[in-house]
Amino acid sequence: MNDRRRALSDTIAAAGKIILGKERQIRLALACLLARGHLLIEDLPGVGKTTLAHTLAQLLGLDFARIQFTSDLLPADIVGVSIYDRERAAFRFLPGPVFAQVVLADEINRATPKTQSALLEAMEERQVTAEGETRRLPEPFFVIATQNPSHQIGTFALPESQLDRFLMRIELGYPDRDAERALLAGGNTRERLETLPATFAPTDLQPLQQAVAGVHVAPALIDYVQALVDGTRQDPAFVHGLSPRAALALLAAARAWAFIDGRDLVLPEDVQAVLPSVAAHRLSRLQGNGHASADDIAAIVRRTPLP
Question: Which regions of the chain does DSSP assign to beta strands (E)?
């Protein structure tokens, strides 16, 4: 297990050579995968959202498929279709790109709600139903969706039910001056990505996910998570607070964060580290159309006593 933990550190370091100056976001994305969740990256075009998804798949040795979401994309384009095979005189199912270990749903909010919903069953049940038959998806199965800010033209806001399927939402933001200078001087990122060696074998990931699920959570830590969740429910700034599913997501993410840090138990600092990414997209503000900000989450943390 120590070798695999070292491989996690190597993965973060290698990804940091492609996505410059974004170690925290890389760690959050990796924690999301280890917690068996799905990741939503919301930011402006051109800041590295697609590159981050491709980098993780390459380093972890996983099958990768990219789906470019557009307004004319249909659910069958994601799930797959049945075609008539003349030689066999029978219909044959052609799997869609969702049958990959890492699926990049690029610019997911450019597609219509009907098409967006084609991912709901896959993300929640890790299976798809097509042509009346249910088919299992590969393991591990990790969806990374990117979306442009909602004020941009040609976007359809994700409904709350679909936002809740994402364990985490992160933003990359602009690189700092030094990182951007290194990016400009470093040549073609795409070429470096294609030659990036894998730090894991695909079979290594599931044992790691099982180990993360076994990271110890003390009763006092569960009390702390409940207090944070209850704080969102009592806050008059939000339409509604965090659900029990969100509380489970928070614990899973905190376990993964602790594991990446090399610990077998969760500390309050682990919960605080992942809370903004787990909670903000699940909390709708009562005033205006936005979701909770980092300042909103920080205020909840300040009001909640440590265990």
Answer: 39-42, 64-68, 80-85, 90-95, 102-106, 127-130, 133-136, 142-147, 168-170
Question: Which superfamily is assigned to 1-207 in CATH?
Answer: P-loop containing nucleotide triphosphate hydrolases (3.40.50.300)
pLDDT tens figures, 210-222: 999 999 999 999 9
* Residues 142-198 pLDDT 10s: 999 998 765 555 567 777 878 888 999 999 888 888 888 888 887 667 777 777 888
Longest dimension (CA), the chain: 69
- How high is the pLDDT of residue 155? 65
For strands 80-85 and 90-95, give the pairing. antiparallel
**Could you state, in order of their start, the residue ranges of all structural domains in the chain?**
1-207, 214-307
Q: What does each C-alpha distance from 240 to 69, 126, 230, 283, 305 come to in angstroms?
A: 30, 28, 11, 7, 22
User: Can you identify the CATH homologous superfamily of domain 214-307?
Assistant: Magnesium chelatase subunit I, C-Terminal domain (1.10.8.80)
